[in-house]
Amino acid sequence: MAAQVEDVSAPVVHHETAVRAGQLRLRLGHLPLHLVVVGITAVWLIPLLGLLVSSFRPTPAVLSTGWWHSFALPGDYTIDNYREVLDRNSMLLSLFNSLAIVVPATLLTVVLSSAAAYALACMQFKFRSGVLLLIVTLLIVPVQITLVPLLRVFNSLDLTGSFLGLWLVHLGYGLPFAVYLLHNFFAALPRELFEAAEMDGASRSQVFFAIVLPISRPALASLAIFEFVWTWNDLLTALIFLGGFREVAPMTVAVSQLVASRGNGWEVLTSAAMLSMVVPMAVFLAMQKQFVRGMLAGFAKG
Amino acid sequence: MIADRISLVVIAVVVTLVVAFGYLRLGDRALALLPLAWNRRLLPWLFVAPAAAMLGLTLVFPAILTVVFSFFDAEGSAFVGFANYSETLSDSVTQIALRNTVMWVLLLPALAVLVGLTIAVLAERVAYGGLVKAALFLPIAISAVAAGVIWTFMYDYQPPIAEQTGTVNALITLIPGTDPVAWIINEATNNYALIAATLWTQAGFAMVIFAAALRSIPEELHEAARLDGASEWKLFRHVTFPALVPTVVVVATTMTVIALKAFDIVYVMTNGSYGTDVLSTVMYRELFTAKDNGVAGAVATILMVAVIPIMIFNVRQFRRGKES
Asked: Are residues A209 and A280 in the same domain?
């Protein structure tokens, strides 16, 4: 802000007084600005801090005092909560269940959507715009509308509780957004890139694997992160199609089961919630740029 | 067990990649044997068909079947007309859920736009803007389940004589004469408490979209208005905001859909007790506790009908985007 004001005032000298007055008004009006910004920041950070601190506090302390009391010296912290939740509640298995659900589901979504988006963006065929419109429509279908018949099919095929079934459901639910995002990206690629290769006799699939996919790595990465975080954080689908079996439960289901049996107490719940956040948070922080880019390409286009 | 999971992931990844590559390369080669006209017609479907089939199997046909089920009885054997609808709509549980869903749909988009826009605009004006944006951004990666745990903990209630362990109640009891509030149980506050927890996870999304839209407004517009002596507020009101209206629409519709689908956070924090049901939690109970496919289908169809206006709007926007 200040830099912009200076840029303007340098060449246009006679406007300087107006700019000065503006700056003064700004400075006088700064207090409410800071109050609002600091207030919102606090509301967003304190819950996270509270969870983090509580997850390292011993049980009696969590039950009797607020987490901020632990800052009184000497600090009384422990990793027992994590040890307990990993041992007794087999949270480690849930962590790997989550990975076993999320990694294949994400890969399947990226593979199927990139092939479809390539054809929709770069080939002419009958029903092309029909398929695109269907995808735009399906973008916001509430998945709830599909649960009753899908669950019936799962029960009759004995797919309930299997990872394969859940992969397919996540794949189907993820496809509209995935195809839409990649279609936007592929449609913006310069045509000359593949036309030259096709002139030289390359087949469509060769162009797809050798040209389209390599240059689309940023878009594919954005999509993969999105699907990864969404699928990891999903509760409803896992709850319904895994049938509540503990040995296949992903982290979200395991944590929600801990909540339901409140007898476990807060201390286990906080460390379990922290553990369930570690992987998506790490992926998200490591690849923020791609995440934001995917978000803008997928939503802001409107 | 853990070793099983790891090998499952490895096998699934390898099989997916090999099958996908083989399918497209061999399929392409097989279609090349056909006459050119047929090849032209069928080749796009080689690429589109797997995705289209999955969309049909997991979304389109199940959606149609759900609507059909909603006109049949619990087992799907006898046609009952609109009986499921009248049954569920006259049930006080569904009525409360409908009221709450309306509340979610009104409040969540409005608050997400308000907070997201406020931070996107104001973060540019303070030296610690990066920290503020990061604070809103972090919860995007947090599941509604974890957010539910976090906020149950924040809203924790102890009787007035005891020490408050929940952050919110500890803060409000600092004010002399104020009693702690059982935020999640008290029916006057609990729906707002759940919506606020959801806002906490979603506001960062709104902020990112608004921040990008703000960057795309030409700086000359602002400079010109500033030189004319416009105040910061007038600048926002007459220059910035009008340019952001399309973005407000995008964020508001996305949040409306999130509000309509709300399930996880309610399931974790209250499981629909104390008058906090939403349509999704009612449907979940019909499906699993009551095992009534007819009524569950009717509730899902009501949810679907609520989304249709947004769907039509999106399709229109998409068509307009194509033409321009």
From this structure: yes
Structurally, how many domains does chain A consist of? 2
pLDDT tens string, chain A, 302 residues long: the values are: 333 333 333 344 445 555 555 555 555 567 888 888 999 999 999 999 999 998 888 888 887 888 888 787 667 788 888 888 888 767 889 999 999 999 999 999 999 999 999 999 988 898 999 999 999 999 888 888 999 899 989 889 988 889 999 999 999 999 999 999 999 899 888 888 888 888 888 888 999 999 999 999 989 999 999 899 999 999 999 999 998 788 899 999 999 888 877 655 667 888 899 999 999 999 888 888 888 888 787 776 54
Shortest Cα–Cα distance, A196 to chain B (Å): 18
**CA gap B131, B218 in Å, rounded:** 25
Choose, out of B65, B111, B138, B143, the residue to mutate when testing the contact with A (most A CBs < 10 Å).
Answer: B143
Residues from chain B that touch A1, judged by Cβ atoms under 8 A, are: 124-125
B10 touching A, CB under 8 A? no
B74 belongs to a structural domain: no
Are B119 and A40 a contacting pair, CB within 8 Å?
yes
Q: Which of A174, A242, A101 minimizes the C-alpha distance to B12?
A: A101
Chain B residues within 8 A of A277 when measuring between CB atoms: 141-143, 146
What's the CATH number where A166 sits?
A: 1.10.3720.10
> Does B292 reach chain A within 8 Å, measured CB to CB?
no
Cβ within 8 Å, pair A50-B150: yes
Beta bridge partner(s), residue A91: none
Give Cβ neighbours of residue A300 (< 8 Å, ≥ 6 apart). Answer: B209, B212, B213, B247, B250
